[in-house]
Every structure is written in C-alpha cells, then in structure tokens.
Amino acid sequence: MPLKLSKNLDEVCYPFIQETSYLCDFEVLTDELCALIGAVLAYLSEDMADIRKDLEQLQPLAFHLNGSVRGRLAIEEADLCWLNARLEHYRNTLQGQQHRFVLPRGDAPVPQLNQARSAAKKAIRALVRVDQEGIEVAPILPRLCNLMCNFFFYLTLVVNQRRGFVETEFVSKSYGPHR
C-alpha cells in the first residue's frame, strides 16, 4: 500500500514530498541550497562584507530556482549576468591561483560553501532527470546552478586566501600523466 500524506497538516512538511518525480527532489535540493547559503552567512566575519552582500543577493535566487519548474520561471538572464560578474570579480582577486584544483579544506564557512557547491551539482543532476521525465526545464535553470557551483568554489578560494590558509593542491592519479 503506497504511503499517503497525513490529514494533519502539522505532519506534512511539503505537499509534494511523496511524489516519485525528480521534480520534488530538485525542489528539496534547492531548499537545501538556500539553507546552506544561510549557514555561510552565519559564519561570515565582518571583514567579508563583500561576500556577505553577494550571498544575501544570491540566497533568494535559490528559492526562485525552487519554484521555477513547477511554477512560473523566476530566474532572468540579468541574474546570471550579475552572478557571472561577481564570479569574475572574485576570480580576479585570486592573483593566478584560480586554476588549481584543491582539496576542500578550511574553516567555516568554507565547508558550508563546499556543501553548497555539491548541492548545486545535485540540483543540476535532478534537473537532468526532470527533463528526462518529459517535464520542461528552462535552459536558464541549469546554467544558473552551474554558475552557482563555480561561484561557491571560487568563494572557498577567496575566503581561504584572505585568511592566509594554504590550500592543498590535488593532482589526480586518474587523469594526470602516467608515471
């Protein structure tokens, strides 16, 4: 017998929680993404005011992503342009350190930024599945998720650089030159 939602609304966290579609998974993941951005904000020190301002603007976009498949598309090209400009700004502050692949390390909020990066990847994967289910996905949605993922990665590097944390570069044995 399939699970049914309780008639007691206090026992229902989300009206679509028992759907088998990946759309619900996408919505849960973007909810998690929004919460992770909030966690990052809680850990930011006063000397990270520029990052705080950017994340305060970015956080609502995670919730706009959430409803943009089931409801009305709430992401605009201007949102991507803004985030791309901010990513470029932070990339430029890294002074040649931006093309390294590093192990995900550092003090809070770096772990939370890495979790947000992973949540953005999971949201992209869920969108792929939603599309495969025949539900229309606006191309701007995975573009924004990809951009968010890259943005969070660069923020980890920037936060660690500002704190003087020395990154540990990762060199893959799987894809690098054979020895």
TrEMBL record:
Keyword set includes Nucleus: no
Superkingdom of origin organism: Bacteria
Pfam family, one: Cob_adeno_trans
Keywords tagged on the record: ATP-binding, Nucleotide-binding, Transferase
InterPro entries per record: CblAdoTrfase-like (IPR016030), CblAdoTrfase-like_sf (IPR036451)
Cobalamin adenosyltransferase-like domain residues: 30-158
UniProt-recorded name of the protein: Cobalamin adenosyltransferase-like domain-containing protein
